[in-house]
Amino acid sequence: MTGPSPSREIYEKPPVVEAVIDIKCVNKASLTIRDLAAFASEFAPQFAQEGQSLEIEERYEPDGARKTTTERISGLVLRSSADNLRVIQPKLTGMSYSRLAPYERWESFRDEAKQAWLRYAHLAQPDTVTRIGVRYVNVLRIGSPAIHELAPFLQMHPVTPWSLSAPPDGFNLQVRRRGITDGVRLIINQATVLTVGTPTAGILLDLDAFLDGTFTTEEDPLWNQVEMLHAEVEEAFEAAITDHTRELFR
Looking at the structure, do residues 20 and 108 belong to the same domain, yes or no? Predict the structure, then answer.
């Protein structure tokens, strides 16, 4: 497993509110929710079951006038008992591992996710991996600048016409692009956010890098791809912010 890039800056106050590693796969046909419950018990008492993941299917009848909605349990939600900062979601179709704020370091987060995945894969016996994703949800606390005053903080931001009598007080912006590495897709979401208990607004910077396809379940190739996706997210993060914003994290 490759280590951190020598040029990568480790921020003292990272703006990450949630980091997620998500792996979807085609598992053995006999995998059941009961199996996932047995998987969850392996993590007790460090993790406790918090809830269930639901899959909702909506189907219209031939006449088009009636809609049938079907819900089924597709997985479980486990949260760390000691600090509530780590979440494992084992599902019938894959597993995700999340770390909530305060975020520490990629290396420790990745290694925790990897250990959970290895235990999940031992249970689920996946034939192939169909999606690999690394997502970082950041909230930049930059005060309450007007939308047309975001240039000192963000390289990418809305530009409002001067003819508007009053500037907007919020925005939502999405950009989809190819990653640096072939096959990688990157979705960037930016928006204004309000958090209860904080005096100022923040700017959401949500970065989601992923691969869709058919991939091996072998440990080293799989986690090398996870590492590569993390590098894509870091590249996008650094490209999105300015030196002025970096000072807020140091």
Answer: yes
Q: Residue 132 falls within a domain, yes or no?
A: yes
Residue 116: other Cβ atoms inside 10 A: 23
Note whether 101 and 73 are within 8 A (CB).
no
Domain limits for position 84: 32-91
pTM over 0.70: yes
pLDDT at 77 over 50: yes
* Nearest one of 83, 203, 215, 62 to 142, comparing CA atoms: 203
CA distance 195 to 226: 30
Q: Report the distance separating Cα 178 and Cα 159, nearest Å.
A: 23
Is 64 found in the same domain as 140?
no
Q: Are residues 172 and 104 in the same domain?
A: yes
Tokens of 199: 């005096």
State the pLDDT at residue 223.
Answer: 98
138-188 pLDDT, tens digit per residue, is: 999 887 656 667 888 899 887 777 666 676 777 899 999 999 888 999 999
pLDDT of residue 96: 98
